[in-house]
Amino acid sequence: MAISFPLRYDEAFRRVWSYDPSRLGTYVNEVKELSDLFLRKRVDPVYFSRSEILRAYSFFFFPQNYLKASAILSLFPDLWEGKRDLRVLDFGGGPGNSTLALRDSLQERVNEIVYVDKQREGWELLRSIDGDPKIKAHSLSSLAGPIDIYLFSYTLKEVGEGIFGILRELKRHESSQAVYIFLDAPDRDVLVLIDRMRRQFAREGYGTLFPCRSGGPCPLLELTRDVESVCFSQLPWTPPPLVEEINSRLRFYIKFLKFASLVVMKGAEGEEFLFSVSPYIGEKGKGRAFFCAPEGRLEVERLEKERSEANASLDELHRGSLVEWPKGEARLRGEELSGRVRIDRCETLRLLTDLRGRRRPSRGRG
Description:
The relative contact order is 0.12. It is built from eleven helices and 18 strands. Helix 1 runs antiparallel to helix 3 (51-74), helix 2 (24-38) crosses helix 10 and helix 3 runs parallel beside helix 4. It is of the alpha/beta class.
């Protein structure tokens, strides 16, 4: 199912920037410039000081990154069940897309959203479209009190290796069940950095809730340099009208939202699932899909004659889909699941729309 951006924010940006349809060509050129900046190996952290770049982000990239953060948060509907006093931190909040995604997703469960960013321009734009008193700007040096959720949205390219020092500082403020969420571009440098962070978190007793449950090196990164063959999510979406217009002019045709991610929780264990690294690929007389497995890519093949109601979920598969497959998961626990597996009509596969992270029993830390 395609996800869509709340039109109230689209309308707010049009108001704040005094949107003029006759200037669409100008807006398109600004988006193209910002897109080119994002493709650089390292992003200049002061680009939002230019109002035309901030406007381009508002019109085009804000909706996409808001929905990516919302999609990750929607995976864990029960993780903060019954909470009414969550304190969350958005590191590198920029114009506030992830800040508002946190607020809108968690709703009454949030008591305070701590916004951290050295640049003031993004903060000022956020306040102009939403004045929620729960959202408060802080510097790292002014932090006090426990934090329950840390969100890092598109910050890894800016901070690079510095993320490990930042995390050491932030962990001083974490609550007993702190959750760390990272979202970023699915390029190789970012994926390698995320893999290193995941292993460091595992060594320190944090459980990975998404997308990988392994504590060791990513087998796919070890096997290939092809980014298209490793773990990132790809979500179908419905672009808001202005994004659609800019898309058509630039011929970007962004049909899917793509992002790399990592979700870890202090002293937790994740749910059993398989992570798809491909859509379902139909072929003559059969079809196949690829999943992440301990030894690398697992190819799951289904002959057309074995299609059944039990395995029909394969037809809806897209990159980043989460699949419940009892037989496959039993084999995966024994690290026997690799190479190619053919399923029959009796095997049940189900797409998961959410996950349930849970505390690990007190007897162990992994």
